[in-house]
Design goal:
Layout: E1 5-9, E2 15-16, E3 19-21, E4 26-31, E5 44-47, E6 53-57, E7 60-64, E8 69-72, E9 83-88, E10 94-98, E11 104-107, E12 110-112, E13 129-135, E14 144-148, E15 153-156, E16 161-162, H1 172-178, E17 183-185, E18 189-191, E19 204-206, H2 216-224, E20 227-230, E21 233-237, E22 241-247, E23 257-263, E24 266-271, E25 275-278, E26 289-291, E27 297-302, E28 308-312, E29 317-320, E30 327-330, E31 341-347, E32 352-357, E33 361-365, E34 370-375, E35 385-390, E36 395-400, E37 403-408, E38 413-419, E39 423-428, E40 434-438, E41 441-444, E42 448-450, E43 457-462, E44 467-472, E45 475-480, E46 487-488, E47 499-505, E48 508-513, E49 518-522, E50 525-530, E51 541-546, E52 551-556, E53 559-564, E54 569-574, E55 585-591, E56 594-599, E57 602-607, E58 619-627, E59 630-632, E60 637-641, E61 648-655, E62 664-668, E63 678-680, E64 684-687, E65 693-702, E66 712-719, H3 726-794, H4 798-819, E67 824-825, H5 826-843, E68 848-854, E69 862-865, H6 871-882, E70 889-898, E71 901-908, H7 913-919, H8 922-946, E72 951-956, ...
Parallel strand pairs: 18-20, 19-22, 60-66, 68-70
Antiparallel strand pairs: 1-4, 2-3, 3-34, 4-29, 5-6, 6-7, 7-8, 9-10, 10-11, 11-12, 13-14, 13-17, 14-15, 15-16, 20-21, 21-22, 23-24, 24-25, 25-26, 27-28, 28-29, 30-57, 31-32, 32-33, 33-34, 35-36, 36-37, 37-38, 39-40, 40-41, 41-42, 43-44, 44-45, 45-46, 47-48, 48-49, 49-50, 51-52, 52-53, 53-54, ...
Helix pairs in contact: 3-4, 3-8, 4-5, 5-6
Length: 980
């Protein structure tokens, strides 16, 4: 907790010749201004019905939930900032006593005063209230009675204030206390100047208690009735007698008593000089423990959980958690040499406790509580007492950083057994043989040593009198007195482990590691691995301690884990959250039901089976509500108009005084109490831009080791603005749709017109481009045909030349007709190609034959294709494939339908594409490349206005896996127009 500091106070240092008496310590927490308290001077403390602790200070009041203070001053509704007393009634009101005498109280998040509550208006005659009472019986509205400095009684009925209701003058207070069947006091103790009561002449005053304090009837009376404080004596008052059950001088207390608290069988007495604690006062205990020396104690409070609150004049508030009464603490403030403890053990024969510390110091604590101190290691550098083991009768084996000693508990003298540098661990065999692990060597006392090892030896565990295991920073080893050589032990798991401690228990080897938790080995095999994933307090083990019967205690850097050696399961963890002085554990020792834990911050001991576990869920409350820039008082129902981009935020709190930082929250906004819970450590739940609607927020919490609390529900209703109403949204939606339809219609019309114009424009351009490219083919074909006529004339074939010219003229007329069209029918294209091929046959002296193959499916449709797109391919096949061939050639033209495209293949058995390219002249290459590029360009232009994608591919059959066949195969996919 960021605003909390811990102060460990120790007391009762009683000199007894050369020894000290053991004093139990308590861990006390201090809260001050830096933690949020309104003032360091605190006059009084009280717990209200909800569970909050309230503190009265000269600068207002503080309400505390265990984690944060909420301060109230005059600006918040107090009648005065100087509040010297508080009282909580059964209705839930918290009354503030101020020096101006005006009444005010806190109820349901509001401070009521005479300005905002007319029922509190009255004339106080310049006197202020000293104490308060409440009707024992009554209806819903019990009257509250106040006793003021003018010895008058003021009654508040809930509707008005009645001054001097009883009119009994100086005896009014005693009269109220005497009639405890009618009036319930709202405080546990009262200061009186005298016990004389003229209205009760038969009162018997016992200045010496006539009964023993162990008398159960007397104890019950003291617990049930308010206590009267008369100077430095305490009295139990009734209508018949006043019994002094505590006389300060008899207990060594000379100053006047300022306050008192009765806690079960314990008595707390506060004075202007100190706080006194008598544990088991009602069981006859006679020892007074002085706490908070030189502190002015202004009030004492025991809350519902058993925690003790101590308010002081100028030193803030002190708090003792209830669970700390189950623990006892020792460090350098109450008997030990230092707060740093390294080892702990007990000589069961003499019942002497031995505490090993740094600086080579051993503290012994006798069964009567006397503490002695011995210096066992004076070497420079590290000289801590690392290990203490029982050896023989009255002899304890003690290992320090530099020595192995034998300490006799009867004579309280130490004897050096061996000087050992950097001693790490000591073990004793069943027969009493001593083995030592030290730095890089293993020593068997008085027998042999295995030295100069290339590893750091950290621990040792005897199996028998002649065999043992050795733990090192590089793994586990086994050794025997016969071989005297370390051998790797276990499986591969132990080869690279950094081992911290070993324990051999009933045939099992327990291995504590530096960072991997606990391994359990049986016959060289790992049978169990326990780590933080299995609820081990930490994977960093510092020591293993076996109590000899059932439990193995693992000391770690985060507390102690208790393991059942039979089931090899972790039964519980003990940490500073449970009451330890520190989580850095150096050693553990168990003696019957008492558990001793050595920490880096002192020694803690307690009854191991009597640890308090607070399983009661915490009290959860609604602190405030924020919506947008506004903050609202807590309420279970919240209704507000929707704000755009406003965050809805709810702040909850819990009343937890012990470990408030470990409180977990769960909230649910779905209304389903079984599902949808979100867990968080934050007590503020934001919901950004919450849309209008009705919601149910449920929140629950749990503290350390407790169950979840009962959910606290809150109804949230975010009302829609007018424009968010269904009818407004309907109108806006219809209007928006109509507007969108009008705009869309206008836009679509404009787009369609523009697209129509653009499409027509692009179509005309594409057709013109296609015709232009077709016309580019005409000169090309004419040039080749005239070359053929020239060839016939040169060959003296005049008749054939004339016939050729006639057919050529017909072909030219047909070509001119086709060039003016964007598409021609497939039949027209085949007729054109047939006429062209016949001319080429004449030209090449019938050196080839041709054949058309047309798919039957094409005959069912009238298919239109772009003109003059197949002819250049056929021409190239004849001229560059078949013409150079020495033998007769064959040309096949195949037409098929593939999806919505016309597949056309021109297949010749000529010399092939690659060979043709190698023998063509550069002019022919240019000519041929131009023809093919024009075809590809035409296909792209057709795609632009037709949308269909064409393709042209040239394949040399010899090189493309057609066996030994020669020739060229040209495949073209032509976009078409298909009609039935």
């Amino acid at each position: 907790m960021s605003f909390t500091r811990y102060i460990l106070l120790w007391w009762l240092v009683i000199f007894c010749t050369s020894t000290h008496a053991l004093a139990q310590g308590l861990m006390i927490r201090n809260y001050n201004v830096k933690d949020g308290l309104a003032n360091a001077t605190v006059y009084a403390a009280v717990q209200d019905r909800d569970g909050f602790i309230w503190f009265a200070t000269p600068t207002g009041v503080s309400k505390f939930d265990g984690k944060r203070f909420r301060n109230y001053a005059k600006k918040d509704g107090l009648t005065d900032n100087d509040v010297f007393r508080l009282a909580a009634d059964s209705k839930g009101r918290l009354w503030f006593f101020t020096l101006n005498g005006k009444l005010s109280f806190y109820y349901k998040s509001i401070i009521h005063n005479s300005d905002n509550d007319s029922t509190l208006r009255f004339n106080n005659r310049s006197h202020y209230m000293q104490s308060a009472f409440e009707d024992r019986e009554g209806g819903k509205e019990k009257a509250v009675w106040f006793y003021n400095t003018n010895n008058r009684v003021i009654q508040y009925t809930g509707k008005q204030v009645v001054y001097d209701k009883l009119g009994r003058g100086d005896v009014a207070l005693l009269w109220l206390l005497r009639n405890d069947g009618l009036f319930r006091p709202l405080q546990n103790a009262f200061h009186v100047e005298s016990l004389k009561d003229p209205g009760n002449e038969n009162l018997v005053v016992h200045s010496v208690c006539p009964y023993p304090l162990t008398d159960t009837v007397l104890a019950a009376r003291i617990h049930q009735r308010p206590v009267l404080m008369l100077r430095n004596a305490l009295y139990s008052y009734s209508a018949t007698d006043a019994i002094c059950f505590f006389n300060g001088p008899a207990w060594g207390i000379r100053e006047d008593i300022s306050n008192v608290c009765i806690d079960n069988n314990n008595l707390w007495v506060g004075t202007q000089r100190a706080l006194y604690f008598i544990r088991d006062f009602f069981n006859g205990e006679k020892k007074v423990i002085k706490l908070l020396d030189n502190h002015y104690i202004t009030s004492l409070l025991k809350d519902r959980d058993g925690n003790i609150w101590i308010t002081t004049f100028g030193d803030g508030v002190y708090y003792i958690p209830y669970k700390n009464f189950y623990f006892s603490y020792l460090d350098n403030t109450n008997g030990l040499y230092s707060h740093s403890i390294f080892s702990i053990c007990k000589d069961k024969k003499t019942d002497m406790l031995l505490v090993g510390q740094n600086a080579g110091i051993l503290n012994t604590i006798s069964s009567s509580g006397n503490i002695n101190q011995f210096t066992l290691d004076t070497a420079s550098g590290r000289n801590s007492l690392l290990t203490i083991l029982p050896y023989r009768d009255n002899d304890m084996l003690i290992g320090t950083d530099n020595r192995l000693l034998l300490f006799n508990t009867a004579a309280q003298k130490a004897r050096l057994l061996k000087s050992v540098r950097m001693l790490k661990d000591v073990d004793i065999t069943p027969s009493g043989k001593i083995r030592i692990a030290a730095k890089n060597q293993v020593i068997v006392l008085d027998e042999y040593a295995i030295s100069d090892l290339d590893m750091m030896v950290t621990s040792i565990a005897s199996v028998t009198d002649s065999t043992y295991y050795v733990g090192t920073n590089t793994g586990l080893y086994f050794c025997s007195d016969n071989r005297r050589q370390l051998q790797p032990a276990g499986n591969d798991t132990f080869r690279k482990l950094s081992i911290k401690d070993l324990k051999w228990i009933n045939g099992y080897l327990w291995v504590g590691t530096s960072d991997q938790g606990i391994y359990v080995m049986y016959r060289d095999e790992v049978v169990k691995h326990l780590s933080s994933a299995n609820n081990l307090a930490s994977d960093i083990c510092q020591q293993l301690y076996y109590d000899g019967s059932k439990h193995l205690y693992v000391a770690t850097n985060k507390g102690v884990s208790v393991i059942d050696v039979k089931t090899r399961t972790i039964t519980r963890n003990i940490t500073s959250n449970d009451g330890l002085m520190s989580d850095d554990i150096r050693g553990v020792y168990a003696d019957h039901d008492m558990l001793y834990i050595a920490t880096s911050n002192g020694l803690c001991y307690f009854k191991g089976n009597n640890l308090p576990v607070d399983t009661v869920p915490p009290v959860i409350y609604l602190s405030n509500i924020r919506y947008g820039d506004s903050t609202f008082l807590p309420a279970t129902d919240f209704t507000h108009l929707y704000k755009r981009k406003a965050s809805f935020e709810v702040e909850f709190g819990t009343i937890v005084f012990d470990l408030p930082d470990l409180v977990e929250y769960q909230y649910n906004f779905s209304g389903d109490s079984t599902n949808g819970w979100v867990t968080t450590m934050s007590n503020i739940f934001p919901f950004p831009d919450l849309p209008p609607g009705a919601y149910r927020l449920m929140v629950r919490a749990r503290k350390y080791k407790s169950d979840w609390s009962k959910p606290l529900s809150m109804n949230v209703n975010i009302l829609p603005q007018w424009y968010q109403q269904w009818w407004a949204r309907g109108i806006l939606l219809v209007a928006a749709l109509l507007l969108i339809l009008v705009v869309l219609r206008f836009i679509v019309r404009r787009i369609k017109q523009a697209e129509k114009r653009k499409t027509e424009y692009n179509r005309r351009i594409a057709e013109l481009e296609a015709k232009a490219l077709t016309n580019q083919m005409n000169p090309h074909f004419i040039f080749n045909s005239l070359n053929s006529v020239q060839h016939l004339i040169l060959e003296k074939e005049e008749k054939q030349a004339l016939n050729f010219l006639a057919d050529f003229a017909t072909l030219m007329r047909q070509m001119l007709n086709n060039s003016r069209k964007s598409y021609i029918s497939l039949e027209e294209e085949i007729a054109f190609l047939t006429r062209y091929l016949e001319l080429e046959k004449i030209r090449f002296a019938h050196s080839f034959t041709y054949h058309f193959i047309m798919e039957d499916a094409l005959k069912d449709y009238t298919v239109y294709i772009p003109p003059m797109i197949i002819q250049p391919i056929v021409e190239n096949a004849i001229k560059h494939g078949l013409a150079p061939k020495n033998s007769s050639g064959y040309l096949e033209i195949r037409l098929e339908m593939v999806d919505d495209l016309l597949y056309c293949s021109v297949d010749d058995d000529g010399i092939g594409w690659d060979k043709s390219n190698s023998i063509k002249s550069s002019r022919l290459i240019k000519h041929e490349s131009t023809a093919l590029s024009v075809i590809k360009e035409r296909l792209q232009i057709i795609k632009s206005f037709n949308g269909s994608v064409g393709k042209l591919e040239i394949i040399d059959k010899f090189k493309s896996g057609f066996g030994n066949k020669e020739g060229t195969l040209v495949e073209i996919l032509i976009p078409i127009v298909k009609m039935l």
